Amino acid sequence: MAAFLEGLRVSIELTPAQSADLPHADRIIRTAASFTLTGEKPTIAEREVEAIVNSGNCYLVHVADRLSDYGHSGVIVARPVDGALVVNLLSLSCTVLGKQVEHAVLTGLAQVASSQGLGNVVFEYRPSGRNQPTLSFLKMITAGDNENRFQVATADVEESIRRAAVAPGAWSLKVSNCSH
Length: 180
What we know:
By secondary structure, the protein is of the alpha+beta class. The protein is 32% helix and 31% strand. It is globular and about 40 Å long.
């Protein structure tokens, strides 16, 4: 698996969401079920999605590899709170699972946190019955404060990824203008 992933070279980009990204964010938030902090939200109101996208704390994840350009494949909402970057929405499309996108996203979030002078990345997890893969990932890469809050120091992210990823660094990551 590691050799396959290294040969695939996944390209991931985190960018701040813009109003024009509303349809992409809406699709991902409504449908992502297994890799999400909160579970899919098929009945979320359009105005709520619009508020998320326009919050200034929303990022989109774009994924491509030599096989395909998967386009916008993830949505993240993260905001600074008490010295930490708190992530309360993270959803990745199932089409990019298995490509270690979640590890690259963690690296990107650590970069965003560092650029804002924040020492930790905190994930707020709410079980949905279908998002067990997210919980497993969070337990591998963080120190869980409890079953709903998982924290990793930005300084420890690389080591956490080295321990948990199948092929650490088998991706390229670009974080575009993600400091507020």
